[in-house]
């Protein structure tokens, strides 16, 4: 973790400074309270004070970021983990923070709802990125598809993550296509997520069962 300290500090500041800076700059025009939670159709259904939205949320996201890094860095099996995988873990929360900050501030300065297209495109990009690095993840207890059947066997882990990577990339592409098409079908999104989770998990179970019975 010490060797990644500059990256950890930089990504933490990337969560804190843009959100707080934008909030301070727009303070006089932002509503109080601010919409901070949105339903599946992008409509605001939860509100927080302006102070919490501008300062509290980025602090909470930074704490989540540091907690995730702490867990992954203290897993002995991650000491030799692929560098690209470790870098991806460092960048996930900051990336999500930047996009969601922009969307939440835009919603509060506009029509009090999230724009559907940026949200679904964000999900698609994240799923594709995760799918790209899943095959590179070596067996550990904090990152990846962690079910009993993958955790007990390196071969099952590797095969599951190779398939999972392909499924997640395809799921991300499906999300992006839906975003550009403008359908915004919540049931379609749920179905994609169920497939992305269910196919690799089911596959790992079948591999384990086959290995035990064979």
Quote the average pLDDT: 85
State the shape: globular
Output the strand order for the largest sheet.
1-2
Gyration radius, in Å = 19 Å
Strand content: under 5%
The tally of strands reads 2
N-C termini distance = 42 Å
| Helix and strand run | HEEHHHHHH
Question: How many domains, in number, for the residues?
Answer: 2
Low-confidence parts? none
Give helix % range.
Answer: over 70%
Sheet of most strands: 2 strands, antiparallel
What's the tally of helices?
Answer: 7
What's the short story on this structure?
This protein has 214 residues and is mainly alpha-helical. It is built from 7 helices and 2 strands; from the N terminus they run αββαααααα.
Please name the defining characteristics of this protein.
214 residues; two-stranded antiparallel sheet; mainly alpha; 2 strands; 70% helix
Structural notes for this entry:
This protein folds into two domains: 1-97, no CATH class; 115-214, no CATH class. It contains seven helices and two strands; from the N terminus they run H-E-E-H-H-H-H-H-H. The protein has helices spanning 5-25, 50-73, 83-109, 116-133, 148-151, 154-181, 186-213; strands at residues 34-38, 44-48. A two-stranded antiparallel sheet has the order 1-2. Helix 2 runs antiparallel to helix 3 (83-109) and helix 4 runs antiparallel to helix 6 (154-181). The longest helix has 28 residues, at 154-181. The protein starts with a helix and ends with a helix. The mean pLDDT is 85.
Describe the SSE topology.
Blueprint: H1 5-25, E1 34-38, E2 44-48, H2 50-73, H3 83-109, H4 116-133, H5 148-151, H6 154-181, H7 186-213
Antiparallel strand pairs: 1-2
